[in-house]
Amino acid sequence: MATISIGRALPRPYELVRSVVRPAQRVFPGQLLAAVVREYRQEYQVQCDIERVTALDDRLLRDIGLSRGEIEHVVRDGRQADTAPQDDLLAALGRKR
Description:
By secondary structure, this protein is an all-alpha fold.
């Protein structure tokens, strides 16, 4: 099975720490580790979802109202104006809102 590269690597641990901890914020090591693991898992899930949607053929993408250029945006941020195709996409991935 071929691997699909989407051009974005998983974040490095120090990037996760920066995204979780604000400057001058007191954080205990256990909380920090839990937050970093949570952020890493979330990013990993997004990457897996992007790969799964990218593997769909153009006809199926067109049926759910997506183009290849919109995949990452829709998986990460969803759609603001029209949520019906996003719901179809999440259902195809087996996830709920």
